[in-house]
Specification:
The complex is a heterodimer. Chain A is 87% helix and 0% strand. By secondary structure, chain A is mainly α. Chain B is α/β, with parallel strands linked by helices. In chain B, the strands form two sheets. A six-stranded mixed sheet of chain B has the order 6-7-8-3-9-10, sandwiched between helices. A four-stranded antiparallel sheet of chain B has the order 2-1-4-5. At the A-B interface, α5 of A face α3 and α4 of B. The complex binds adenosine-5'-triphosphate and magnesium ion. Magnesium ion binds next to α2 of chain B.
Chain lengths: 260, 270
């Protein structure tokens, strides 16, 4: 029993210390004096690796999820004779929930794990230590551009996901199942509000993007510098990010739409 | 007082632990300015650790390290990075940046610490690469180099800024005899011509002694012997003699510390 408590205590302390280190990493990389001339090319490079290279998986997933939504929405709504509302259903579920959440989950798997592995390998091969010895702060050179790139890419990816998803929904509902396209789009326009739905979706994706990329760079920077340590850190990035996304999504949804 | 001014780096009463293992136990040594100091000792005694402590990457548990009179571990993060810009370090693993070509690696310290025009940077890079025999490999990626070539490229990067203070961790490892001769020449020329303070960690005893001004032999967390190369070569101490001649049997253990390490080391010599 005592041993169990001891272990629990040690584990808790470790976690608390890790959160502290993660906060320190954030402050050292972001609050540090920005050097825009040095930063910009690095940021663009990371936007490419983190954002542009995630496009394919985001577009393909968005398309299929939109198509599934169109199909499911139609089969449910047709029973009530309100299949005209399928456009509204597809758009609302995408903009409010599925686009930010699914994009963030895919982003954690595609970009977050890659960032962790890359930084972890840099640590294991002493490249981070070498930057330090050359007198370049790896927090600013390596960590900061990746943090910013993730933070910027995520909302854009999420928007692309929503747009492609809505298009996929219209493919199924309008082109395949034959709903009148005028009512599909008009219903959608009438029910999706910018300030409530779109803005809240963007806020969600900003929060998720920040959390995912923060976890990813922290796990990379904090990993045990061996191949085993890197693989564990990569796994942790995906697991912690996914849990954080789903938990935060509930919290944010309750805050945004919970005023009954 | 003159003696003090000639000290570039002063390590005093340094103790350092790795978990339960004590790597350094009250270690004190000084590195004279403008000289080549060799640090030798059995594998795993903490030579690399000592260089990392001097560079401020590790923090001592006790004692202090002063570079130019500044306590490295009391500096602010910014001052520490400024100090490091004046140091060059060749990592034991090379640590080339894998996302850059060899030329970009060597140019990197020049680009971040100077405002030199691109054409000058290019010429400097070619000169440094020429000095280590890799001018032809400038456009290769680190993954395309052999082990010995990667180390020479890393050496070219370490000397790119002509820093006041250079630390070489195993510069000769994995080099063929010709490259070895070239590197020995290069290191001693850098020191004699430009007056850099150099610290060499190496297991190639005769090569290192041929250019070193002063030698520290470290074992079991302490300085075992020190002096000019001739003094160490002629030492009567069985531990020093064993290490210098590279004999497998003797008071200095070849094995990683086992419980009776201390007894083995000190039992028959003191
Ligand atoms: N990251 C680490 N964590 C724990 N122990 C370590 C770590 N790095 C090194 N050590 C231990 O510290 C000791 C000193 O290591 P160091 O790399 O300084 O040796 P060295 O003298 O440079 O050896 P070599 O000549 O083989 O390069 C070793 O015994 C090693 O077991
Ligand atoms: Mg070493």
């Amino acid at each position: 029993m005592i041993q169990f408590l001891q272990k629990l205590g040690a584990k808790t302390l470790n976690r608390v210390a890790a959160v502290g280190r993660a906060g320190q990493l954030l402050s050292q990389s972001l609050i540090a004096k920005p050097a825009p001339m040095m930063m910009l090319p690095l940021l663009i490079r990371q936007l490419y690796f983190i954002g542009v290279l995630s496009l394919v998986i985001i577009i393909v997933s968005g398309l299929f999820i939109g198509m599934v939504l169109g199909l499911q929405g139609y089969t449910i709504l047709v029973d009530y004779g309100s299949e005209q509302a399928v456009g509204q259903m597809v758009a609302l579920s995408l903009v409010r929930e599925l686009a930010p959440v699914v994009t963030a989950l895919l982003f954690a798997g595609r970009a977050g794990s890659a960032v962790t592995a890359e930084i972890g390998l840099m640590k294991a091969t002493e490249q981070l230590a070498c930057y330090e010895m050359i007198g370049v702060d790896p927090m600013r050179r390596i960590i900061a551009p990746r943090l910013w790139a993730g933070f910027i890419s995520m909302p854009l990816l999420s928007m692309i996901f929503a747009i492609v998803g809505i298009w996929g929904g219209s493919l199924v509902a309008v082109d395949w199942l034959g709903i009148f396209s005028g009512s599909f789009w008009a219903n959608m326009q009438a029910s999706v509000s910018f300030s409530e739905d779109v803005l809240n979706g963007v806020i969600k994706s900003l929060v998720f993007g920040f959390v995912v990329i923060w976890i990813a760079v922290f796990q990379g920077n904090d990993c045990v510098p061996t191949s085993e340590g890197i693989s564990q850190a990569t796994t942790r990035t995906v697991v912690y990010s996914s849990l954080a996304i789903l938990g935060l999504d509930f919290l944010l949804t309750a805050m945004m739409f919970g005023d009954f | 007082m003159a003696q003090l001014n000639d000290t570039h780096i002063e390590v005093s009463n340094l103790s350092f632990w790795r978990g339960e293992r004590k790597i350094f136990d009250d270690l004190s040594l000084t590195i004279p300015r403008g000289k080549i100091t060799a640090i030798m000792g059995p594998s795993g005694t903490g030579k690399t650790t000592l260089l990392k402590l001097i560079g401020g990457q590790l923090t001592p548990d006790q004692g202090s390290i002063r570079v130019d009179g500044d306590n490295v571990h009391a500096l602010s993060r910014r001052r520490l990075f400024e100090l490091r810009a004046k140091m060059g370090m060749l990592f034991q693993s090379g640590a080339l940046f894998t996302d850059m070509t060899v030329a970009e690696n060597v140019a990197f310290p020049l680009r971040v610490h100077t405002d030199l025009p691109e054409s000058v940077v290019r010429d400097l890079v070619l000169m440094k690469l020429n000095a280590v025999g890799l001018r032809g490999a400038s456009e290769l990626k680190p993954a395309e180099l052999s082990g010995g070539m990667a180390r020479r490229a890393a050496l070219a990067r370490a000397i790119a800024l002509d820093p006041d203070f250079l630390m070489y961790d195993e510069p000769f490892a994995g080099q063929d005899p010709i490259a070895m001769g070239v590197l020995i020449n290069l290191i001693s020329r850098l020191n004699r011509a430009l007056g850099h303070t150099s610290v060499i960690v190496s297991h190639d005893i005769q090569e290192t002694l041929s250019i070193a001004d002063y030698v520290y032999l470290i074992s079991d967390g302490k300085v075992l012997a020190q002096g000019a190369p001739d003094q160490l070569n002629g030492s009567e101490d069985p531990r020093v003699e064993q290490f210098m001649k590279g004999r497998p049997d003797g008071p200095v253990p070849f094995h990683f510390p086992a419980p009776s390490f201390k007894d083995q080391l000190f039992g028959d010599s003191q």
